[in-house]
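Lab notebook, page 48
Experiment: co-folding of the full assembly
Goal: obtain a model of how the components sit together before planning crosslinking
Operator: M.T.
Materials (sequences as entered):
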Amino acid sequence: MALELHPLEQFKVEPLIPLHIGGLDVSYTNSALFMTVAVVLITALLVLGTRRGALVPSRWQSVGEMSYEFVADMVDTNAGHGAEPYFPFVFTLFMFVLFANLLGLIPYSFTVTSQLIVTFALAAAVFIGVTIIGLVKHGAHFLRLFVPEGVPVILLLLLVPIELLSYFIRPFTLSIRLFANMLAGHTMLAIFGGFAASVGLLAIFPVALDVAIFALEVLVAALQAYVFAILTCLYLRDALHLH
Amino acid sequence: MSEDRPPDALARFAERLDKARAQSGERPAVGDGDGAGQQRALGLGFRIGIEFVVAIVVATGLGWAFDRALGTKPFATIVMFFLGVATGMYNVYRAITGQGAAIGFRRPQRDVKRKD
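Observation: model returned without errors.
Model output:
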């Protein structure tokens, strides 16, 4: 029996509307399509949901308000005072990642966050932004971040490179964590789905497993959006407060 | 919008809400109780798993790039590999001891004094 498994096919980026401007391939791809869908859905949820602005909220208004309060609370507790101006950024980031993750769970859809370049672009934006904020707020004093206090000079020779390295791996950990979680989950779903298609009546077992994995993936989708946002807050706190 | 309503209606509503909450086990509506703590722990668990691996890979990659640029074939790779391991362990340690993702961690003031 020919076992036809293509668990990685779902991650293929395909141009939907081919576009080439000045030698650059800027085609509108399936990835771009689902980014657009995510942005449209978020905008619709927040704009339409809060249109009426009732004191006792409707369902959609309630969802919008809950997500607002959730992120506001997260920024407040994790980024500390003075982080309020950055709330819109964190909120946008959280909602985009959350919606991209959840949209990816719909069968036949495309998971934007399973593309390393997408998550890396988001993480690089956070990293560069936070570094600029730190440098603007504290000037050269920001570099004291890399020199732990109360440490013998000889140990500094080891600790400063470690601190520098842990600072510069941040965009990588941030992006690879999200990307790897989405990639692994969706590949697993596809593999067990492929098994189910090829083993006849025994398919009940892989399908049952797929249902369980799907439930886990819903959790992971929400959790990774949360982790992405909370780490952005923690990085912001470093830049704003320098301990 | 609700600005044109008399404020005492709001006040009465808050009063009723408080009373109802007190009756049903006084948990505030916004979940900063058990759920939030669990959520935070779960977030932490998912976070540190990858920290260690990425530190090593990125550091070794950087070392390899230095080697290519400076022509010091194996040495930078080797040194950066061990630096990556140290960084990974240090970061996981910091994450689980509640330092968060903080870079350049400062001791609590009391500890510094004792050391001096």
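Interpretation: Chain B has four helices and no strands.
Next step: discuss with group before ordering constructs.
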